[in-house]
Amino acid sequence: MSATGAARTGARGSRLFGLGRGLSRERGNFTWVYLWGAPLRAMHWVAAACVVVLIVTGFYIGRPYFMTSGEASAHFLMGRVRFIHFTAAAVLMMTGIVRVYWLFAGNRFERLPALFPLTPKNARRIARTTSEYLTFRPGKEPGLVGHGPLQQVAYTSLYLLVTVMVVTGLTMYGQSNPGGIIFRAFAWVPSLLGGLQLVRLVHHVLAWAVIVYVLIHVYFTIRSDYIERVGRVSSIITGGLFVSTDEKYDDYDIDEVPARPWPGSEYPNPTK
Amino acid sequence: MITPSAYGWTESETLRQHLESRGVSRRDFLKFCGEIAVVLGVGAAAAPRIARALEAVKRPTVIWLQLQECTGCVESVLRTADPTIGDLLLDLVSLDYNHTLMAGAGTAVEKAKQSSMAANKGKYILVVTGSIPTKEGGIYTMVGGRTAEVLVKEAADGAAAILAVGACAHFGSVQAARPNPTGAVGVRDIIKNRPIVNIAGCPPIGDTVTATVVHFLTYGRLPAVDGEGRPLFAYGKRIHDQCTRRAHFDAGQFVQAFDDESARKGFCLYSVGCKGPATFSPCPIFQWNTRTSWPIGAGHPCIGCTEPHFWDTMTPFYGRLPNVGGFAVEQRVDTIGAALAIGAAAGIATHAAATVYTQIKRRKATHQVPETATEPENQDG
Ligand code: HEM
Ligand code: HEM
Ligand code: SF4
Ligand code: SF4
Fold first, then answer.
1. Does residue A7 sit within a domain?
2. What would the CATH number be for the domain defined by B15-235?
3. What is the spatial distance between Cα B292 and Cα A15, in angstroms, rounded to a whole number?
């Protein structure tokens, strides 16, 4: 479960001389740390699929280049594309509900406070992470098992970004049924932004932000998998990481990994 | 079938009597009531009620203020779908005070207006076309030496109801477009304590005005309105959801240029900037000039003239997305977005290459040097 004494001493020794800083550990003692609950993982992939579908269909709605010919009654291209957009949006919103539930039911890495790592210490860490990304120099402090604060800030912004997409999207969606529930619930949006066209514009511009975000997100997860070698990408599939027990982590007491790291058994570890 | 008004509708006459004296048959009158009932969305079954109420109506006093405007709205209202009765309602309007239609001028009519307002205090209908300039003390529109703001406040004071007709009276229209040099605003921005209905549009369709007046005469109150203060019977639905070209939208058939094959085939005008998806208006149903046609029917995209600040938010008229702060978003947003995405991809590729390079170097260094060696990463700094 936890590392052997010998290995730990070795690790400390090497850390003393700075060896292995910022480097993944490929040999030694490892343990599997369970981080992401099944609802989070499920919602991640369903949401990712929805976002891809929304981008593709949204593009067509924004710029319908493909056209059909012949009788209008024989085709339903835009109608279908919009139907898919709205269906994907509905599924995306359901994953949002799962995420909100998990903000309260999840573990300490998944709960609401984790989304806002707003401490001075984390601000410094964000600055350091940024400089690491720019200079390619490895970090000089204990790593984290969970999200780094910069990474977390990015995820939290994405949640906010998608929320704005949902709000502006629903506002436009509600227009076809004036006086309906959706229409009335989002009547404040056009007044706030200065008209329906501005709502459309915000939705359109932020679609690009989503695209750029997805590119960067996928890059950094794969990059971290490559550098840290802890199985970062598979963590959003299996729920856990293989982390070295020869290292120390700021956000996780590696000596206290629960035996059965499943929900109901005080997972992941409660010590911090 | 209608004789030109040899004499006006006198005050003691009911509408029924007046119509008879002008040779309007009861059949025509009932037909008109039926049409109005349909326009108002109360159903043809309500026609008898409307007829009964209208027949008994004594000539109402209508004061029509024309402020900072182009008179287009009066022109539009003149073209009501049913000229016989529509004209009549206009006759009734013109009787008391309307710059374009009244015969008199000068101090005399100003006096007449004052006495008419005083005599019918709390009972008259106030129609306003045109905006109210507020900058420089409102000197940009003055009638009889007094500013539009003073005039509209004075007239609103004794009005039973106010019809703000047209985009100018609604929110200021083109004169309120950025940078709004005269500080033009709509009636609702000046008058807060009177029932106002906005007959939105630049110009609005005459039938909407007629129907609103009929509603007021029949039910004694203004029709139900939406969040913009526009009567729901007319502005309750989007153009896009009532459009005759909608089948082409759903089918994915779009006009790309005004002279292309698709334009000739009458495809949807979405790609050439149609604002139907963002505009609430009865155009497709009421249509214009006695139901002759309407903009989209004639091949021109909707410019969204019934929506507040459409000169700012619906422009460019031939582009789908609005210009913000004079920045041609429509042309640039996708270019910039694509540039950002490509830039991000290029940045990612570069960053990935650098990552792999430094990582390989570092790994090599680590593997070559024994555990106790000095800091290998200092060498690659
Ligand atoms: C449209 C596509 C995607 C979106 C919108 C998206 C969004 C997100 C969000 C919001 C989180 C944070 C979850 C949380 O803790 O609250 C996350 C985590 C994660 N995503 Fe994605 N994702 C997308 C695609 C992908 C893809 C394609 C991969 C695989 C390479 C991936 C791998 C991961 C991983 C590994 C994590 C966990 C990060 C960690 O353990 O530190 N995502 N994603
Ligand atoms: C990541 C999420 C999303 C992306 C990338 C996206 C993308 C887009 C794009 C590019 C457009 C075209 C905008 C234009 O130029 O007119 C659009 C339209 C639209 N989207 Fe989204 N969208 C997303 C989420 C949503 C959501 C959650 C809803 C909620 C219902 C929604 C509803 C709509 C509606 C109603 C339209 C207008 C369709 C029409 O007028 O026919 N979208 N979307
Ligand atoms: S022409 Fe305009 S209002 Fe009509 S379907 Fe096309 S986009 Fe909608
Ligand atoms: S089609 Fe649109 S722009 Fe034209 S008159 Fe009607 S609402 Fe105004």
1. no
2. 3.40.50.700
3. 86
Would the pTM of this model clear 0.90, i.e. be above it?
A: no
Task: Give residue A101's domain range.
Answer: 39-229
Structure tokens at B348: 């990612």
What pLDDT digit, counting tens, does each position of A195-216 carry?
999 999 999 999 999 999 999 9
**Rg of chain B's alpha carbons, rounded to an integer?**
30
Q: Which of B331, B348, B367 to mutate to test the interface with A (most CBs of A within 10 A)?
A: B348
Name, in order, each residue with C-beta under 8 angstroms of A31's C-beta and a sequence gap of 6 or more: A1, A2, A3, A242, A243, A245, A254, A257
Q: Which residue shows structure tokens 């479960």? A: A1
Query: From the CB of B204, is ligand 4 less than 6 Å away?
Result: no
CB atoms inside a 10 Å sphere around CB A70: 9
Q: How far is A255 from chain B (nearest CA, A)?
A: 24
Chain A residues in contact with B249 (beta carbon < 8 A): 78
Q: What span, in angstroms and rounded, lies between the C-alpha atoms of A166 and A193?
A: 15
C-beta separation of B34 from B44 below 8 A: yes
**Is residue B230 within 8 Å of residue B200, measured between CB atoms?**
yes
Instruction: Tell me the longest C-alpha to C-alpha distance in chain A.
Output: 79
Residue A196: its chain B contacts at CB < 8 A? 277-278, 307, 313
State the CB neighbour count (10 A cutoff) for residue A145: 22
pLDDT in tens, B153-172: 999 999 999 999 999 999 99
Identity of the residue in B271, B329, B341 whose CB atom sits nearest the CB atom of A64: B271
CATH code: domain of residue A107: 1.20.950.20
Query: At a CB cut-off of 8 Å and minimum separation 6, what does B185 contact?
Result: B131, B132, B134, B171, B172, B176
Mutational pocket test of ligand 2: of A61, A170, A210, the residue with most ligand atoms within 8 Å of the beta carbon: A61
CA separation for the pair A214, B344 (Å, rounded): 10
Measured distance CA(B297)–CA(B245) in Å, rounded: 8
Contact B88, B28 (CB under 8 A): no
Q: Which ipTM score applies to this complex? A: 0.85
